[in-house]
Amino acid sequence: MAAITAPARATEDTAKRVGGGRWTAYWLLAPGALWLLLFFVVPFYSLVSASLFDPNGSVLTGYDVTYHVGNFGTAVKNYYPELLRSLWYAGLATLVCLVIGYVLAYAIAFKAGRWRNLLLVLVIAPFFTSFLLRTLSWKLILSDHGFIVDLFQKVHILGSDGRLLNTWFAVVSGIVYNFLPFMVLPLYASLEKIDGRLIEAAGDLYASPFTAFFKVTWPLSLPGVVAGTLLTFIPAAGDFINAQLLGGPGQRMVGNVIQSLFTSTQDYAAAGALSVILMALIVGLVLVYIRKVGTEELV
Amino acid sequence: MSQASEGSRSLHLSQVTKEFAAFRAVDSLDLDVPHGSFFALLGPSGCGKTTTLRMVAGLETPTSGTIRIGDTDITYAKPYQRPVNTVFQSYALFPHLDVHENVAFGLRRRKSKEVDRQVSEMLALVELESQARKKPAQLSGGQQQRVALARALINRPDVLLLDEPLGALDLKLRRSMQIELKRIQTEVGLTFVHVTHDQEEAMTMADTVAVMNAGVIEQMGAPAELYENPRTTFVANFLGQSNLIAGKVVGREGDFVKVDMHGIVVSVPFDRAHTDGGEGWVGIRPEKVLVAEVGEDIDAPGNHLEGGVVTDVSFVGVSTQYLVRMPWGQELQVFEQNTGRRRLFTHGEKVDISWRPEYAFLLDASQDAHAGIEEE
């Protein structure tokens, strides 16, 4: 009898040791959960309730939650140009980032040799300066009498009174510049993991370097492409600094509208509704995108 | 397929040299692999065999020399322009494609017709039909190996290169894959060039084995020929094991050379004496040596050596392996088949040993007697 029960007890012991006590997992989750509660759930709750405020209230008289769903319709009606422009600017900037970032990440991963680490440091070097300062310097670079405008005027890309500041070009350039590292790093991480022997195998199996890239390298780098485009597109769509510093009234993005609605106009209902709409739009687009690219199939 | 075109698809390397900076990996290599043969390049790691293979595949460019298939010079052809496919050591299967698409890869690049039918047939040949829709990561090592083989074979290359294809498999699986590979090669009739450091693998599978060392081919021939009549100490040690005993040539008697080994004169067949000088290494394979009690008449009329002492006995089932210390201090290896008719000797016993002269060989004294012995 004893001989039979002994192994059973041993198994129980092992289970307990591997499980490490039933509360350990919760303790480990606690800091993250608390953080999310304080800085995501609570603000999200207040944002959603703000979007349902009675639009007739004001900061002085106070707002009532009247579940006024009409806020959403009003926000879309009033601000759809800014909403669309945000998605368009962010999408364009993401695409430009992808092209520049892919070439850069590819070069660092496969061609840089011993310069690899230095180049990676250079990619993140701009982060050592503040975001605002960097964007302000772009204002100088693109200014009306800066060398870029001069050069563009000389080669007749711009007319003699043409300018770059306060154009879509300036805003998109700023976004591309500011978010490029978020594209390069995930791309580099997934390109660097690709086994060079797979490319050799593709060549051995009659694929030209061009075909080998599209049939092997590109599909294997898709996780990096997805991560990079999301990390670029999502913050870019909500960004307002680039539009504010580099753009004019014609380049206002939804971030600018929300910022001014919250801080200067103090129309909390409209600001809340617009924020929720932006969030829903982004979540919706991301879901469609991920389903299309189907990253879960990749190893 | 006509006879002429069969012959025109054999592989020829002439004076091929490959240098990496100051290191010469392959040195003026000449090699002819007839169409349809199973050819093994055997050698220790770093001997240049993989570099040779990569040059044939087009993954490395020779520093000098030419590589031809039939009459076509492919020395500088791009990998994707050669009628050559490779089974890579690590398999290099595309992780994002399933088994079917991995195998179809080469056909699709060349815009072949009836890809699906051809792939199904090839998967049947390697017995993987049921795994066609799985990803490589879901397969076992042996299955991945067969996918890699199928992926290369389906293109019907003039030359199929195998780079240590069984290296990652465990011993049992390796044995069965050796038989499998040999069967497939016979079935499809393509030229296989197999690179390996495993001498048993090379000997069991290949028609012709080339033993490579330090960038040159030491000896080439049928496995039995290489084993029975090695020409260098490297081949004698790398292919199986050999006893090499220092000796002086003292004369010739008919078809035999007389060699004085530490005072004992033995004979070696003249056509197995690969030395010009007066000194040499007398070589004899351990299983050719018979061991007997002192004074016993041994069934090996020929070279008889007295005064041995058993210093080690390893019973390995099919045979017993003795170490016998000879009067001049050298320990010789002796393998005796366990027929059950002879008694086992024990440690410290005095014995005589003997071998038939026709099994002995004589190698050049200038060569290192320990060349090719694998470090444990």
TrEMBL record, chain A:
What is the source species? Nocardioides pocheonensis
The GO annotation for biological process reads: transmembrane transport
- What name goes with this protein? ABC transporter permease
**Which family would the database say this protein is a member of?**
Belongs to the binding-protein-dependent transport system permease family. CysTW subfamily.
Organism lineage string: Bacteria, Bacillati, Actinomycetota, Actinomycetes, Propionibacteriales
Record-linked SUPFAM superfamilies: MetI-like
Q: Where in the cell is it found?
A: Cell membrane
Q: Which PROSITE patterns match?
A: ABC_TM1 (PS50928)
Q: Which UniProt keywords apply?
A: Cell membrane, Membrane, Transmembrane, Transmembrane helix, Transport
Q: Which residues cross the membrane?
A: 26-48, 87-110, 117-136, 168-189, 268-290
Give a yes or no for keyword Transport in this entry: yes
Domain named ABC transmembrane type-1 is located at 83-287
Q: Provide one Gene Ontology cellular component.
A: plasma membrane
Q: What is the membrane topology listed in the Swiss-Prot or TrEMBL record?
A: Multi-pass membrane protein
Pfam families referenced in this protein's UniProt entry, alphabetically = BPD_transp_1 (PF00528)
TrEMBL record, chain B:
Enumerate the InterPro entries for this protein.
AAA+_ATPase, ABC_SmlMolc_Importer, ABC_transporter-like_ATP-bd, ABC_transporter-like_CS, Mo/tungstate-bd_C_term_dom, P-loop_NTPase, Transp-assoc_OB_typ2
Provide a GO CC annotation, any one: ATP-binding cassette (ABC) transporter complex
Q: Which Pfam families match?
A: ABC_tran (PF00005), TOBE_2 (PF08402)
Give a yes or no for keyword Lipoprotein in this entry.
Answer: no
Q: Which SUPFAM superfamilies match?
A: MOP-like, P-loop containing nucleoside triphosphate hydrolases
The record ties this protein, via Gene3D superfamilies, to:
2.40.50.100, P-loop containing nucleotide triphosphate hydrolases
Name assigned to this protein? ABC transporter ATP-binding protein
Which parts of the sequence belong to the ABC transporter domain? Answer: 11-239
